[in-house]
Design brief:
The structure holds two protein chains of two kinds. Chain A is an alpha/beta fold. Chain A has eleven helices and twelve strands. Classes of the chains: A alpha/beta, B alpha/beta.
Chain lengths: 337, 617
């Protein structure tokens, strides 16, 4: 369990002395500034925070935060982070990863870390492209997308991170655009407070190799009409005029307009992120219009550490062994004189 | 027909090798371990080797489904499971066919006649019945219809199905062997009482069959005499029989307790290393965190994470798994974290021979990574000293802030031998490089000036927040550096750090001749075979042969060159095509290294070694 502290920090306390080396205009700057700003509000001592990353642009993240950190190898951050958390459950452990790092080379670790539900927080920077290796298609690139390794268009169908995560038993899944720092900070806090593995998909614009890929969803002038920001316990309303909403029509979500066909706010679905059954969360994750953002799923479940702790306590209580010598001299031994 | 007879005077023997072979479902491993444990209690020295197929339940009666267990017991020092066999117990034709080669001519073969039926003979590809065609006339064959004798012995025991009855016949053979070697049946009966506590009918059945075999041997005139093997002369103390993999696991338990650190294992199941995971998973009472990961890579990376967070971190595997872990071991080298990687070697390449032994991962352990990435490599040499070298691997990793690869192999990992139990108090101290104090101008890559080990600042320590990673580090600050001269400097520091470990390990010892005509060199799991062969040569009057066995491969002991210079000829014996010899040739090019190699998935045979040694003196 992580302990909370009353220390007062500022964003500066969480900023390292290393020069940030991302391309100018990259959304990664927004994510970094949001994290530096929000960390002081989390109630966690700086020495108890660890950032772990794999390889890719996103994986430079730990170098820029004045906490403990490991920049590891491609795709393997979940393994390293799991070892850190199991060794010391008091730490607040964060993974910074990208679409290639998490879902291509690290795909196996990604699904298993979600399945186990260790108390870790994963920031998934999804830019639908490989940045650091200079512009190849990734497992989230769209069919037809022209990249350096798909000059005539990508032929490999993409993963949706949320679908994959829910299929892998994720208890916490949130999605947010790179241009929404306020909501992003709020999600970071919720992820930190959530006991279990939390996955945050950040739609992160790559200015060099895939510029504008999310503009139709995240630009200021369309954002409110194209996205629905979900909040637990609140009706599913969106739109500049707050007049659009979601209802369930048979087995499909449907967009309705308040005031048309006798629809009132009472008819709209109310978001329940804490529901164990992921069916509706899955429908929200898959929905193309509007794009669901915010905390889509936040189901409280037992963590792996809690299970392990309980078992260990049980075994200890029932064991006569306190030191290894007790084991070595137990059972069938014999004397040679 | 059971009547009291005057027991014939037992014949005294120094040592005997017995092999039990049958179908993989026949319970040969149990028969073998029971005989082993009983003999150990009696005070014999012991070496065992189980030999089983990769298939869990291969088709009954098939040649590739044969499972065996060999035990060597002695009133003198016994250092290998033995290569040729004094007594072979074969439960079916396939077992006979695949194992008869090992039985010494004129020695005893016990067979279950019932199993030599047409169907089983065909499966074993016999065109005629070997019990009838005269092909076994060079052996003392004892034909016993164990199947029907077992059925008869159990006819009054209620509640047994046919399967249970036929599975009990291994206890009939065990009972016979107990009588032949003058052993008490008490230990095994005690074992039944404990194991089948909840099923009294099984206690009764197994005990009946065991005693039926025992009395059968006593009354049977086909067995002319009985053998006895007196207790061996071993140093006084408390002993237990231990398997190599268990000893490895326990070495880590002891190291964790001694160093005051929690033990973390990240592992993925792989033959023949999995028993270490099984063993450590049992010890939650000591707070052991045994994490079965999703793959080999997550096994090692979780251990690296645990090492960063301050645990004694280990990962266990075999050759194919070591290949998968290579990149992550490079990360542990770059981040200079303490990590132990155990490779229980098996036959390779690729999936190779999973259940057979080999020493062919040596160069993979040395060089199997990208870039110049030196690690410590050490090797255990007996089932019992797997304990010491697991402990030693942990000690060196923690004291020098480096990954250590510990090599064992299928032969010593699955073999068992008496272990004179060590208490944690008698093990050497283990230091580590943890720091908690915040000093002016502190850097994560500040080093101990003697060992060059960097300091170990653990997350959770206020004021020592820092970042490490796989990118090259500035030699002073530990920040990312692409500076050409810095990279060359760091490459040299990483190499020098490993080299300096030679001041923290014992010198190489020479056994038998200290100087002379021929030096036999071995490393790792071949100690038993090589030691007994050199000993035999010495006893035959070849006092000019010395023997040096390496447990420390990288770095080698600092007196290595001096030892090599004392002999006229040097013969390097290993179960590969000459990997250690190639390391010696690079390092000590002034000497000529002769080689004796075997790559058959099997240990050295004594006769081959003796013949080779004789040709050189």
């Amino acid at each position: 369990m992580e302990t909370t502290v009353e220390k007062k920090y500022t964003a500066k306390d969480f900023t390292s002395d290393q020069e940030v080396r991302w391309c100018p205009g990259c959304d990664d700057y927004v994510i970094l500034r949001t994290m530096q700003k929000i960390l002081p509000e989390m109630g966690v001592a700086r020495e108890d925070v660890v950032f772990v990353s794999g390889i890719g642009c996103s994986s430079r993240f730990p170098y820029y935060l004045n906490t403990y950190g490991i920049h590891s190898i491609h795709g393997r951050a979940p393994g390293i982070a799991s070892g850190i958390k199991l060794a010391n459950p008091n730490l607040s452990v964060w993974i910074a990863t990208g679409d290639g790092d998490a879902m291509a080379i690290g795909g196996n670790h990604f699904i298993h870390v979600l399945r186990r539900n260790i108390d870790l927080n994963i920031l998934l920077f999804n830019n639908e492209i490989y940045g650091l290796t200079k512009g190849q298609f990734s497992p989230t690139s769209l069919i037809g997308q022209k990249t350096k390794s798909s000059p005539y268009g990508n032929t490999q169908p993409p993963f949706s991170p949320g679908e994959l995560a829910l299929g892998a038993q994720a208890r916490f899944f949130a999605r947010i655009g790179g241009g929404s720092p306020k909501e992003m900070g709020q999600i970071f806090i919720e992820a930190q407070q959530f006991k279990g593995t939390s996955l945050i998909e950040i739609l992160q614009n790559c200015v060099i190799f895939n510029d504008g890929c999310f503009n139709h969803l995240t630009d200021k002038d369309v954002k409110e009409d194209k996205q629905i920001y979900l909040e637990h316990g609140k009706p599913m309303i969106f739109g500049k005029n707050r007049d659009k909403g979601l209802v369930l029509n048979g087995l499909k979500l449907e967009v309705v307009t308040i005031g048309e066909n006798g629809i009132t706010q009472e008819d709209l679905l109310v978001h329940n992120a804490k529901e164990q059954d992921p069916t509706l969360h899955y429908m929200l994750v898959r929905m193309e219009y509007p794009l669901a953002t915010g905390v889509i799923r936040s189901f409280d479940d037992v963590t792996l550490e809690e299970r392990e702790d309980e078992l260990t306590a049980q075994v200890k209580a029932n064991s006569s062994f306190t030191k290894t010598d007790d084991l070595f001299f137990s059972g069938e031994t014999y004397e040679v004189k | 027909m059971i009547e009291t007879k005057i027991k014939p005077q037992p014949e005294k023997l120094e040592a005997v090798v017995i092999r039990f072979v049958g179908d993989s479902g026949d319970g040969m491993q149990l028969t073998g371990t029971q005989f082993t444990d009983t003999s150990a209690m009696f005070g014999n020295d012991i070496a065992t080797f189980p030999n089983y197929p990769s298939e869990i339940r291969a088709p009954q009666g098939s040649l590739y489904g044969v499972s065996g267990f060999q035990v060597h017991i002695g009133s003198v020092e016994v250092s290998t499971p033995g290569d040729s066999v004094d007594l072979l117990v074969a439960m079916n034709p396939a077992a006979l066919k695949t194992n008869l080669y090992a039985l010494k001519p004129g020695h005893t073969l016990i067979v279950d006649t019932e199993s030599f039926n047409k169907k089983n003979l065909e499966k074993a590809e016999y065109t005629t019945n070997p019990l009838e065609d005269g092909s076994l006339e060079n052996y003392k064959v004892i034909e016993v219809d164990m199947t029907s004798l077992t059925k008869t012995a159990l006819k009054d025991v209620a509640g047994l199905d046919t399967k249970t009855i036929s599975r009990s016949k291994n206890m009939f053979s065990l009972g016979m062997i107990y009588w032949m070697y003058n052993r008490s049946t008490d230990y095994t009966i005690d074992f039944f009482n404990k194991k089948f506590k909840a099923k009294p009918s099984l206690i009764e059945a197994n005990t009946k069959v065991l005693m039926a075999g025992y009395y059968f041997a006593e009354t049977l005139e086909l067995i002319p005499n009985s053998y006895t093997i007196s207790p061996a002369k071993m140093p006084a103390g408390t002993y237990r029989i231990i398997m190599g993999n268990t000893a490895t696991a326990w070495g880590f338990l002891a190291a964790a307790e001694k160093s005051g650190l929690e033990l973390f294992l990240g592992s993925y199941p792989i033959t023949p290393a999995t028993d270490i995971l099984h063993e450590l998973a049992k010890h939650k009472h000591f707070g052991v965190k045994a994490f079965q990961a999703e793959d080999e890579i997550a096994g090692v990376t979780s251990a690296i994470g645990a090492a960063f967070a301050g645990d004694l971190a280990i990962t266990t595997t075999s050759g194919p798994g070591l290949a998968l872990k290579g990149e992550a071991i490079g990360l542990a080298i770059m981040t200079e974290l303490p990590l132990v990687v155990v490779d229980v070697q098996r036959g390779g390449p690729s999936t190779g021979l999973p259940t057979k032994t080999e020493q062919s991962d040596l160069l993979q352990a040395m060089y199997g990574r990208n870039g110049e990435s030196p690690v410590i490599v050490i090797a255990a040499s007996t089932p019992a000293n797997c304990f010491n070298f697991a402990y030693e691997a942990a000690r060196i990793a923690l004291e020098h802030m480096t990954p250590v690869i510990l090599l064992t192999d299928g032969y010593i990992a699955n073999g068992s031998a008496p272990w004179k139990i060590k208490t944690v108090a008698e093990m050497p101290p283990i230091k580590n490089n943890k720091i908690t104090e915040v000093k002016e101008n502190w850097h994560p890559y500040d080093r101990d000036e003697n060992t060059l080990a960097r300091n170990w600042a653990i997350p959770g320590t206020p004021g020592l927040e820092h970042r490490i990673g796989g990118l090259e580090k500035d030699a002073v600050t530990g920040n990312i550096s692409y500076e050409p001269m810095n990279h060359e400097k760091m490459t040299a520091i990483r190499a020098e750090k490993i080299e300096r470990v030679k001041f923290n390990i014992p010198d190489l010892e020479t056994e038998f001749a200290q100087e002379g005509d021929l030096l036999i060199i071995g490393w790792g799991g071949t100690y038993g075979s090589l030691h007994s062969a050199v000993k035999q040569m010495n006893e035959q009057g070849h006092k000019n042969i010395g023997y040096a066995h390496f447990n420390y491969i990288n770095p080698m002991p600092k007196n290595t060159e001096e030892v090599l210079s004392r002999f006229k000829k040097i013969l390097v014996c290993e179960l590969n095509s000459g990997q250690f010899a190639s390391l010696l040739k690079i390092k000590f090019s002034q000497f000529e290294f002769l080689q004796f190699n075997k790559v058959q998935g099997l240990p050295f045979a004594n006769e081959d070694l003796i013949q080779q040694f004789k040709s050189l003196v």
